[in-house]
Amino acid sequence: MKGRTSTHLEQNQISKWTTVNQTVRDKKIGVLCLQETHLTTDHHNQIDTLFSRHLRVLSTSDPIRPGNSAGIAFVLNKEITNTMDATMKVLIPGRAAVLSLKWHNNETINIMNIYAPNNANEHRNFWEKINSEWSRTHTGNIDFMVGDFNITEEPIDRAPARYDQESATEALRELRSTLNLQDTWRIENPNRRMFTFSSNHNTLSRLDRIYTSTRHVESMMDWDSHISHIPTDHHMVSARFAPPGLPHIGKGR
Length: 253
Prior knowledge:
Strand content: 25-35%
Order of helices and strands: HEHEEEEEHEEHEHEEEEE
Strand order of the largest sheet: 4-5-6-7-12-9
Helix content: 10-25%
Number of helices: 5
Largest sheet: 6 strands, mixed
Distance between the termini: 35 Å
Radius of gyration: 18 Å
Structural class: alpha+beta
């Protein structure tokens, strides 16, 4: 999100959240995962006051500078998602958390939201800590891992193409292996280039990704990356999860 406010919107402490609310409802997004939210407790309370009729927001903030650094959030659309029993486990405050919510036939879906450090030298410790915290908290199998990874695994995901720091990518791959997750979009599009971030140095990268459990590969569709109506310097990445057996929901009358 690059913070909670924008100079292009009305001047209040949570100006972007009006657009978040509208985007979730207009696009019929069930779960929206946000990074770099910069939310304090007061900001979160304001969001609940204004939007709790339609949204449920679960967030975790940077423990030292909550209003100015890091922060991630899960935004649940109450109109199409079962939000009553949704819970969040924080693995690294402001950086990594897991949302658990009930799905079809009372199954539980676990979504890990990530906002990785900008400094590649911090990545090995970061991914290893997530691994240890996931194991310690008995969070269960991860169905999806999404977010801003601030690193790419393949040269094709940068322009100009280049490898990222080896120790950083190795640590991420080790975590993915442990969690049994894969970059499904890349596997299905081995030669396609799609970028989600443009730097001030005129370089492009696919930093924002959705990793999926290998057991969900056949249930993923409608992959997309586009400029978001929410003012931010990253593209929004989305996909539709449609496991077998889900009832068909028509357009209504």
